[in-house]
Amino acid sequence: xxxxxxxxxxxxxxxxxxxxxxxxxxxxxxxxxxxxxxxxxxxxxxxxxxxxxxxxxxxxxxxxxxxxxxxxxxxxxxxxxxxxxxxxxxxxxxxxxxxxxxxxxxxxxxxxxxxxxxxxxxxxxxxxxxxxxxxxxxxxxxxxxxxxxxxxxxxxxxxxxxxxxxxxxxxxxxxxxxxxxxxxxxxxxxxxxxxxxxxxxxxxxxxxxxxxxxxxxxxxxxxxxxxxxxxxxxxxxxxxxxxxxxxxxxxxxxxxxxxxxxxxxxxxxxxxxxxxxxxxxxxxxxxxxxxxxxxxxxxxxxxxxxxxxxxxxxxxxxxxxxxxxxxxxxxxxxxxxxxxxxxxxxxxxxxxxxxxxxx
Length: 359
Ligand code: CA
What we know:
By secondary structure, the protein is of the alpha/beta class. The protein contains 13 helices and 11 strands. Helices cover 52% and strands 14% of the residues. The strands form 2 sheets. Strands 7-6-8-5-9-11 form a 6-stranded mixed β-sheet. Helix 2 packs antiparallel against helix 10 (259-295), helix 4 packs across helix 5 (132-141) and helix 6 packs across helix 11 (304-324). The protein is globular and about 65 Å long. Calcium ion binds at residues 156, 214-216, 240.
């Protein structure tokens, strides 16, 4: 009986396919040439390379029906103009971090990283199964963009400091490259946050134009040579516990694709999301050992009282942003509800296990 039903379905399908064969072939043969602009230097380890792999994956998965050419920062547009370039259709997709667009609205930062917020695993849970992605799409739709996660850095490092941080006093007057909400928190702690593109960090730190910088973690930071400009490498990355790397797609370009290619583009981004966290998790400790053993880097924890203060200030900052704009309030409500729920679960799952493993 089941076999007969199957054959019957197959027969119906074949009839439908025969009727539609001409337009389907025409669509299947159509080739799309896309440009991907990025906020990273070309081939930059972990981020630039991830953009390259995503582009290649889309090309491979589509059998060459979409050819994606990657442009590093400044090759087509400067790092911080990638969003506008894709929004107006100069490029079809972009690879960056949502908090780079805070000038368009503070709420963007919720989709990158919230200080003392969600880990990589938790933020993926919020985006894919907790309502986060719908809110993100609602926001980017205003700019004719479709956003999606295309990577995650995992827990970052607190950063590189020319001087030691032993108390809250040491944050006063500190000029530090730290983007997003973390920067606002640093400002309230008495520091001076600045945001400059990754490619310019090393020079700024070495020349003394800034006293400290955060970037990502050992694997990415080693590649930048930041250890040559400062030796104190602090953890944990309280400001970026699991930062989302985004891919945003021009809506018209996306809608011009046949359905299967739309699925390929979004599926490739989801694969890239898994790929980046896996790569960084695999490489970070190796890179950290190189930094310590070959370059004399001092790995230091931020003092607990400093972290507690930063946590209090973080809540203030995030709540103020939420109070200032109805959409931000909606995002914050979703994020906060999810954080409470998932923190309880993580407490008896990962956190309890990590504790047990360290016994
Ligand atoms: Ca960072």
